[in-house]
Every structure is written in structure tokens, then in C-alpha cells.
Amino acid sequence: MDFKIEDVFRGEKKAVAHALNLLEDRRPASLEQNKMLIEKLSNNARPSRHVIGITGPPGVGKSSLMTHIIREYRLRGKTVGVITVDPSSQRSGGALLGDRARIVHDPNDEGIFLRSMAAGSHMGGLAWRTRHCLTVFEAVYDIIIIETVGVGQSETEIDQVAGTVAFIVQPGSGDILQFMKAGIMEIPHVLVVNKADQKALAARARNDLMIARTYSQSALEGWELQLVMTSALEGWGHKELIDVLERHNMFLFEKGILETFRRRKRIEWVIMLFRERFGTFGFEVLGGEEKVRKIIAREDINNPLERLQALEKKVFFYTRST
Amino acid sequence: MTASMNHPKDRPWLMRAYSGYASAKESNLLYRSNLAKGQTGLSIAFDLPTQTSYDSDDILAKGEVGKVGVPVRDHEDMELLFDQIPIENMNTSMTVNASTAWVLALYVAAAQKQGANISKLRGTTQNDIVKEYLSRGTYIFPPKASMRLTSEVISYTVNQIPKWNPINICSYHLQEAGATPVQETAFTLANAMGVLDAVKESGHVKEEDFPNVVGRISFFLNAGIRFIEELCKVRVFSKMWDRICKERYGVSDPKMRRFRYGVQVNSLGLTSQQPENNIARIIYEFLGVVLSKDARARSVQLPAWNEALGLPRKWDQQWSLRLQQIMAFETDLLEYEDIFAGSKVIERKENELEEEARAEIDRIQEMGGIVPVLESGYMKQQLVESNTRKLRQIESGEKVVVGVNQFEEAEPSPLTADTEGSFYMVDDSVEAEQIRILEDFRLRRDKEKVARALDHLREGIEKGKNIVELSIECARSGVTTGEWGKTMREIFGEYRAPTGVSLVAADVSQAGEAGKVNERVRKLNDKLGRNLKILIGKPGLDGHSNGAEQIAVKARDVGMEVVYEGIRLTPEQIAESAMQEGVHIIGLSILSGSHLDLIPEMVKQMKKRGLADIPLVVGGIIPEADMKKMYHAGVKKIYTPKDFNLNDIMNGIVDVVAQANHVEL
User: Fold this and answer.
1) B379: which chain A residues are within 8 Å (Cβ-Cβ)?
2) CA gap B69, B430 in Å, rounded
3) Mean pLDDT of the region B388-401
């Protein structure tokens, strides 16, 4: 490895970048290093970290909202790591990654790190290696924000990696009903009406969102879907938004949901890796997806790559014997 | 017998040359010499720091001072610029947008010092912010705040300087950004409607004066090489504007509804290959805007033949002025009435353009008008797409560009034989000298007065006082451009416009050359272990982002992962992003001529972050003579406007990355 793991833990940006490069490397030769790295990173995850998913359709002003969110967290003394995910062209494999430059921040601030990722052929709203890379962020930063593509039904995966999910809409877009139909409204814990300076429209969006509450799944856990209005233009609502995000984090912690969630997150990660490697065939061999989930859940999952290897052995064993 | 016997000869249009050099003193000499040669108006180019309200010693101004125009930081600079030129008698056109209120304030202050009667001043401030977001890139504030500034300049001049053209709405830059004639017409008229609506809403102009506001709106158009279509375009502009003024704003006086426009003919289409051919292009493009009397330009500026190679010299500009003088004074053009009246062919083409333009305007209105549409990135994306289409046509040869994709064999040109001497070079010592003058000014002025004026500016804006008037007080008190800009940024905030790039549909045809490049990219991806990731951005203050956008879109279409950083970045920001993103290569676009300042700084910032082995490629208007220096500084490849084949550029990038990573393809 051309960096020191201690430098990563210290948040040295060059080392953080190198670690991410390595985790994105798909050459078989890098697998062992990846495994070691993830092991070390997982053992050093910050207990107080808060992973936040930001999602919503294009054009709602996510970038300028991110600018304000980051600024507010920095004012509160928190370090912030950001992952933005953009879709890849299925034909060429190419991608245009975010409007990174539109997230205005001080490049010299050691407490901010931004990385863009292309989704590749991976479905679910994240990139192929987002979960791997997340381990780096979880070991280094207090707040980790993942901004997803925001294109409807593919947004399901954010739920599996972020403790808090905020969904951004623009007033009067009429999108909200579409999202309810698509099932997206089951996911978020916080709804943000951005550009709420357009008063009349904002009121309409508020109504829509009140209805959306009935679709919210978080109610099952005892958290009522929260609604925040923001205006990047007039510069208000961001403090309230951060307050709500922090409150949700506290809620997760106090209810003991956080631990369960983090555990589930790791199980789903292994499931994803397993699916990537063996597809439905693999699940069949081991007795179905639920069975595999149970097998995974039997033991502690500190290193998902290691767990995958254990499962691999099982698959090979059964396929050889049949 | 000629037709001229029944028709009084028309007055010729105003002949301008866009100019402004390194310093106020030098520019002043140039203006005086141009006026002596028969030029009838002044057109002032400001350097980029002035256009974006930074002082010459700001970190963002590094390498840009005096590069594309004159630096004006305070009232003394403006006074020097007009030394021995009576401002009251001048017709002055100023290319300034985001900071119009400030530059106009300096101009008014300088005029007052000369003892001029302010109400007699004549001239134009460009003051068009929409095209800055869409093409030119020197915006500062968010769209809504910008519209307020635009509107306040208008209400100030309508009330105080009635002969002033407070806004010159530009379609020029839209065409440069790729606009088709329909888009050019529609976006520009929608823009004008947005401006007029904003003035109306502000309530700063009396109801009965509103027709005067409409009457003072002028336009700045582009003229491309398809000159018949361009001619129809300007006629459609006139017709549609007349109708909008009448129907939307209830202006009954036809004189107030006249479509008044100036033109600079297309300068981006000029080629660096066989540059002497550009003279023909300039003349044909010129025809489109003067032939039809009913829609003739009120002022024309022609680019210089060698603009694609570097900054033109005085002699090059004189040649372009002579082209106009020959048209106006030697030919019989001005002796006739409109020679297209009654032409069926022209009429048919006009109808077609008008219908499409109207549909597009309706679409923009439906989306809520110009401000929300700007914020959504819709227009920008449309322009990038049109431009992509155009470049693909040139690349495939479907669109002929003589000397570029056809008839490329040529005799060596004696005009460009001596490259060193055939450009205007900005002296390297200019920046240091300008900073010294500025520092000296800061020491001499009354600091308390400055602080008071800035306080007044802040308070006044909050109370809704006119920003130009508040700025005049600042100008007189010795406030500098950078101080005015900083205060305004604090009040209104800064903005980064949507790049439009990520919304552009992918090129679906992976056939032919593009497909082959895509295969090479995929092969390289496997060997690298990660997908080829490239960062594309523009360091410096120049905002002409069309080239960078096209490269970004193309790179995606051949399979690269593109971090598009956009415009106005410091080398430090770019290096920092490159590191965090873990890119394999950095591509920079620099058009303002500041490459020799920016590249060494870029290399320094990369080294500082341990990125010395990340290859750097540069695109832009780079004179031959500078290339060696840039290669020496560590640049791996340089692309100039000569390199129109995007697939070749992509292949070059693949090669450079493969080599830097010791991979064989």
C-alpha cells in the first residue's frame, strides 16, 4: 500500500484518497489488500459517526443545499465526508460526475472531503464500491453524507447504508405523488422542501408531504416523518434541518436502533457481494436468499469480504458434491 | 440611372472596435488614435478581474490583470482612461455585466469630474446577466439578485441619463455556445421579457415612462457564416420584438418598438488554419446584418482575422475597420431601400424561424420565465446539445470548414511567417505595475470616507435605494472595484450556475471512431483496475466554458468518468479536487491568454499534494511560441482550436494515461 493507515485515521486527505483508490481497484491482485484495509477500517469506525442519505429528483437544488448543510455542520465543529453518486451510461460506461464544483467549500479545510462515484452497472442508487469506500469515511469523519442520483425506483439502497435519509423536493413540482406511487416515500425520515421562498408553492408542497406521512415506514419505529422548509436563496431553514437530522440520530441511538441498523447494514453488504459473485444461482445452492441471510447473521460480521470468502467455500463445497 | 436617385442615402452604422489594453494609460492612447482614424464610437473591454469585481491583487486575479482588457479599479483609473477625451461627446460602449452598476458609477463620476452634463451622456452598458450564466461565465450573484441589479441600472439611466442604453441583451454569446438561430432568437427575447418584467415589478419607473424603458433596450447579435439564414434571423428578431412590445407591454409608439441592435460577427468560427481565409468569413458574415435595410445593424464590430491565434495588434484591427468603411463608403449599399422586400423565399424562411422561436418562448414562459429556467439548467443543456451536434457535423465532414476539414493543403502563409511579432503580447510586468499603482492609490485615499461609503452602500441596499446612486458615492470616495465586489458578495451571496453538462443526452452512436475509442478506454480500465477518471476544469476568471463542456461530454461518451469542475477555479482548488477524486488525468481549458501564469502555479499545487505523476493536458488559444514553455513546465499535451477532431483528442488522453501508468494497450 502506498499510504499509511495511521494517516488515514488522522484524516490526512492524501491518504484518504489513496485508500479510496485502492478500495475501488477491481484487479484480483488488490483483493487481499482490500480485505486487510476493510478489516482495519471497520475496527476503527467512529462510534459517533452519522451517515446521512440525501436524495431527491434532479433540479431541486441539492448542490446548494449540500453547501449549506456542510457549512452548518462545520460551524458545529463536525468533520464532514461526502460521497456523491451519479449514473453511468449503460452503453459507453462513461459518466459525468456531479456538479462537484457547485458544492461551495473551502478547499483548504481539512475537515471536508468530497468524492464522486459513478454507479456503473450497479443497481440500487449507489455505486459499485460505495459500501467499501464508506468504511474509509466511517473511520475518519463525524458526518458522512451520501448524495444519490435521485431517479425514482432505483433509490432503494440508500436505506441500507444511511441511518438517516432526507428526501428533497421542490415546491410545486408535482413530483411528490409520483414518488408516493413509486414507493420512495416509505424510505425517508426527513422531507425537505427546498426553494421554499416560493411561498404559495411551498404551502402546496407542504400539503402533499403531510399526505406522504401516511406512507412513511419510519412511523413503525416510532419516528414521525419530519418536514423542513429551506431556502438557499434567502439562506434560511438550514439550522433547523441540521437540528432535525441530529435529533433523528439521537433517536436511533436512544432506541437502540442504531446497533441493529449497523448490523443489518453489514448483513446486506455481504448479501450484495454474494449476489454480485454468484447471482441467483448462489442463493439456490445455499437454500435461498433468506437462508443465506441467516447464515450470515449467525456470526459477527467485522469483515464482509472475509464473510464472503467463507460463503464462497460453502458454495464451492456444495457445487462440487452435487 | 440608379435607384439611389429616389432614395436619400442612409447614414452608415456605427463602426466600433472592441478594445482595451493592459493599462488605463495605454488604452487611452489607443482610443485617441482610433478616434483620430475615423472610428466613431468607443467600445471598452475590461479585464476579467474588473468584470467580476476583484482587485488586481486578489488571488483569483493572478495572471488575468490586463489580459483581455483594461483593469479599472477606482475613479482615477477611469479618469485616466478618458484623459483628453471629452466624455460628454462620446458614445461609449462598455462590456461589463455582473458589475455594471459599479463601472457605470465610475464612468459617471469621471464624467462629473470633467464637468460633463450627466443627462447628455450617450453609450451602452452590456448589463446582460442571462448570457453570462449560459455562455460567457462572468456572473457573480444568484439569478434573482442579478436581475435586481440589472433592473436598477435601467431605472437609474432612464431617470438620469435618458440617452443611455442601459442594457444590451446579447444573443452573441448564445450562438458561440452553440445556439441555433431559433434558440438564439427565442432565448434572447425571453431574456428581454424577463428584464422588462423585473423593471416593471420593481416599481422604480413611472408607468408613463415605461415605454421609454422599452425603447432603450438594445441588443447585441452574432452573425454566422450561413448569411442568408442570419439575414432572416435579424428580420424575425425585428418583427417579433415589435409584437412583444405592442402586445405584452402596450407600447403604442412604433419608434419605441424598434429592434435596435449591434453586431459583432462570429469570432469563434474563425480558424487558426489558413487564418487569412477569415477575412472572407468576416465579410460574408457582415453581409447578413447590413444587407437588409429594414433590419440593419446600428453598430458593427468586426473581429480581427487572426483572433484564433492570439490577441490582435492595432494593424489587425485597422484592417477590420477598413472592411466596414469600404462597405459603407465605396459600395452602393446605402443608396437602396430594403432589397428583400417582397421576396417569397426570404418570407418563407422567416415564417419558419418565427414559428419555432415562438413555440420555444412559450415553453420558457410555461416553466415560469427566465429565472426559474436559468436555475433549472434547461437552456444551458439545450445549448450544450446543439453545440455537440454542430461539432459532430464538423468532425464527420457533414459541415464543411475550408482549410479545416476540407482543402487542408495550403501554401505557407506569409502573413503568419513571423509568429513572434504578429501578435500583441501583454508584457509580463503589467500585473506587478498595476498592483503597485493600486497599492499607491489605497495609501493616498481617505480611509474613513471609504468605510463610510461602503456602510452607506450596505444600508442603502437594505432600504431599497438605487444601487447605481449608492455606487457613485463609493466611486467618488475612493472605494476600489474589489471592495465594492466584496461588499456586494456579502449582501447578495455568490452563485455557481448549472453546467448543463450532466443533463446532455449521451451520443448513442458508438459506431465508427467513437466506438473504437470506447473499446480502448474499456481495455485501459481493466488494466488500471479502476475506470479512467478525468477532471476537467477552467482555472482563472475566463468563463467561456463551451470548449471544456464539449470535451467533458465527449469524454463521457467514449466511456470515461468525468469530474467536470466548471469555471473560475484557482489552481489550488483544481489540484485539491484532483487529489480527493483520485483522477488519472487533469484537463484544463484556458482561453484568456493567462496560460503562462496559470500552468506553473497548477504544477506547483499538484506537486504540493504529491500529484506530480498525474498527467496534465491543456486546451485553449495557445500561441506556438508559448507551447515549448508549457511542455517544459510539465504539460503532457496541448490542444488548440486546430484540433477539432474530438476522437483524436480522446485517443490522445488514453495514450497519455496509459503511458503515465506504464500500461501497454
Assistant:
1) none
2) 12
3) 89
